[in-house]
């Protein structure tokens, strides 16, 4: 059987007292990895899956389903296909994106793009008929699994938005803990709780941050650009903004405000994602060099001097005064280092929430159907494992 993993090194031969490198070793081809999916409301769970996939090879190709395929097999996506294509292209571990790929991954697809194997998380994705969408590549032994990121899913994020309450995150001593119960249960039949989509609490670690961060530091002479905000539910509007900001310099630092600070100036149920989730989401994108966790709302002289900031940018959104009524960008303006950017994109987190609310019943129905399909597949898997155990007499 063909070996579709990373090629093994071929030992060097010795001829006439000299080492002779095998010609096949010199012609070693890069391992091409295939991933595909909906990548709706791209979050750090998606990014972490792609990071792990890239580590299994040399070149990562990501196929993204179009809206028609997603509606057929899952229900309406929150982001349009154009938005999803753009978001995936900007993730730092992605080398190439293929638009409008089939929902079921085939050997023809892998061969067409010269991919050695396909990679997916350790959950099960099914078609509208309940069939494992990776069954063909699994059967051909051209499939590898990576660990799914616990505590985050598009389904859970949709649930949080549907809650319309600021109680989806705790304040005080449990400031950054997302409350999974309400968002998980929203619109779901109690009998429809699958083992993968159901939200378990996200537990952030320094290792996760290190995996997402490239440990970059500005080189001598680099122009450092600083932007700050909530960057909640990181979307194409954010992406266009940071791309424009990055183009003004060489090293982009993103300051992320704490949850209570975001709630003060955004109100309502914001932020949808807690600080730790937002940190990983922002770090996943190739234009970002560094993130300041819990950045001050007002940009201080101390911050600018510490990070040697040359330019401070803000978009066209309203600048809300600090609690003392002062302009949070007063210092960089006084220093002549403030630049207002027009990203050319009017997408906001509020508009995404509005999409969800306007289609509330459709998304609740989608969440419930997804859970039921997963549960059915999982129960079938468990039943099969039990039958094998009994047959083996163990």
From TrEMBL:
Pathway of action: Lipid metabolism; Phospholipid metabolism; phosphatidylethanolamine biosynthesis; phosphatidylethanolamine from ethanolamine: step 2/3
Cellular component, GO annotation: cytoplasm
InterPro entries: CCT, Cyt_trans-like, Ect1/PCYT2, Rossmann-like_a/b/a_fold
Class of this enzyme: transferase
Gene Ontology process terms (BP): phosphatidylethanolamine biosynthetic process
GO molecular function list: ethanolamine-phosphate cytidylyltransferase activity
Catalytic activity, EC: 2.7.7.14
Residues annotated as domain Cytidyltransferase-like: 34-158, 227-321
Keywords of the record: Lipid biosynthesis, Lipid metabolism, Nucleotidyltransferase, Phospholipid biosynthesis, Phospholipid metabolism, Transferase
Family: Belongs to the cytidylyltransferase family.
PANTHER family listed in its UniProt record: ETHANOLAMINE-PHOSPHATE CYTIDYLYLTRANSFERASE
Protein name per its UniProtKB record: ethanolamine-phosphate cytidylyltransferase
Taxonomic source organism: Polyplax serrata
